[in-house]
């Protein structure tokens, strides 16, 4: 493929809670593609009604969360006849909704924590045990996520999660290592062990540069027995296929104390700065950040050739 003929518009920002993180990803991708493609432009997308530079051949989407990862942007780009990177509209909508993706995992025998959906009430279901996890079904970067240790913490956690939508996902709490696995095309990347300095992998631990607090250590590849690594990677691939995701994704998992992995969720637009998790894993597998971006472009143009 002659990348030098391409005009790539990198879409960042968005109207959601991950706007600043998305803009950081967009700037990093623009830098990685400079000199690798014919022309690269950064487009700050606030929401519907955005415009692309004249002559855009491909939109490189790094809008995390609302209007980037939820299928709406994909639908708009398809309507305009513009090719774009990553998952298409249907798989984007499915992966973005943690309740629907959880149902798909269960129906495809993808091991995932037991769950319950709460709608329109703060009352605790009788079968929910503590600790449990309370989360909005359609937010990223652990926004609105709480590990509820006791009934005293229940009401505040549910009220906070309810700020992001009418439904709330309650999950069984799995104690263990936080892991993530990238998938690019048919390649499953090395496992990363995410080790927050305190608490769990929430917004402050993911982006200490943004909130000036928290922090996390990353181990890539994760220090796991070979057989466990293989099972984790196989489960990540199974989750990727179960949701029908095109081009690439990053699957978040938990590994319990018995070395049994559980899928939490799948990200169709993972972070794309030099220090983000997908580029870390790609680098371990032998691909520079620029090479990863070009691979995503190449795979996307094949997948979206009918757009």
Structure description:
- This protein is of the alpha+beta class.
- It folds into three domains: 3-86 and 295-302, 3-Layer(aba) Sandwich (Rossmann fold), CATH 3.40.50.20; 95-111 and 175-287, ATP-grasp fold, B domain (D-amino Acid Aminotransferase, Chain A, domain 1), CATH 3.30.470.20; 115-172, ATP-grasp fold, A domain (Dna Ligase, domain 1, 2-Layer Sandwich), CATH 3.30.1490.20.
- The protein is 32% helix and 25% strand.
- Strands 11-10-9-12-13 form a five-stranded antiparallel beta sheet. A four-stranded parallel beta sheet has the order 2-1-3-4, with helices on both faces.
- Strand 1 (7-13), helix 1 (19-33) and strand 2 (39-45) form a beta-alpha-beta unit.
- The two termini are 18 Å apart.
Write the CATH homologous superfamily of the largest domain: ATP-grasp fold, B domain
Structural class: alpha+beta
How are strands sequenced across the largest beta sheet?
11-10-9-12-13
Q: Based on Cα principal axes, name the global outline.
A: globular
CATH topology call of the largest domain:
D-amino Acid Aminotransferase, Chain A, domain 1
What does the largest sheet look like?
5 strands, antiparallel
What is the class of the largest domain in the CATH system? Alpha Beta
Order of helices and strands: EHEEHEHHEEEHEEEHHEHEEHH
Please give the number of β-strands. Answer: 13
Low-confidence sequence ranges: none
CATH architecture of the largest domain: 2-Layer Sandwich
Q: Helical stretch count? A: 10
Helical coverage, percent range = 25-40%
**Number of separate structural domains:** 3
Terminal CA distance reads: 18 Å
Strand coverage percent:
25-35%
Radius of gyration, in Å, reads 19 Å
């Amino acid at each position: 493929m002659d990348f030098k003929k391409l005009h790539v518009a990198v879409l960042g920002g968005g109207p959601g809670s991950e706007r600043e993180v998305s803009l950081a990803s967009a700037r990093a991708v623009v830098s990685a593609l400079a000199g690798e493609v014919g022309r690269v432009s950064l487009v700050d997308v606030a929401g519907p009604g955005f415009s692309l530079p004249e002559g855009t051949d491909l939109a490189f989407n790094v809008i995390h969360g609302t209007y980037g990862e939820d299928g709406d942007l994909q639908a708009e780009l398809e309507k305009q006849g513009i090719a774009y990177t990553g998952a298409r509209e249907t798989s984007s909508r499915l992966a973005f909704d943690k309740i629907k993706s959880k149902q798909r995992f269960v129906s495809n025998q993808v091991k995932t924590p037991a769950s319950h959906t709460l709608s329109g009430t703060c009352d605790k279901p009788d079968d929910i045990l503590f600790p449990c996890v309370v989360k909005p079904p359609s937010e990223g970067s652990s926004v609105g996520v709480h590990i509820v240790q006791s009934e005293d913490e229940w009401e505040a956690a549910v009220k906070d999660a309810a700020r992001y939508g009418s439904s709330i996902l309650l999950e069984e709490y799995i104690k263990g290592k936080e892991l993530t696995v990238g998938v690019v095309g048919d390649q499953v990347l090395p496992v990363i062990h995410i080790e927050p300095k305190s608490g769990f992998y929430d917004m402050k631990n993911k982006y200490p540069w943004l909130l000036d607090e928290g922090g996390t250590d990353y181990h890539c590849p994760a220090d796991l027995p070979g057989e466990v690594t293989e099972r984790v990677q196989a489960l990540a691939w199974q989750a990727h296929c179960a949701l029908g995701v095109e081009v690439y994704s990053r699957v978040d998992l938990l590994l319990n104390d018995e070395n049994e992995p559980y899928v939490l969720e799948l990200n169709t637009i993972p972070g794309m700065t030099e220090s983000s998790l997908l580029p870390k894993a790609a680098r371990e597998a032998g691909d520079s950040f620029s090479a990863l971006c070009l691979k995503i472009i190449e795979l996307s143009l094949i997948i979206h050739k009918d757009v």
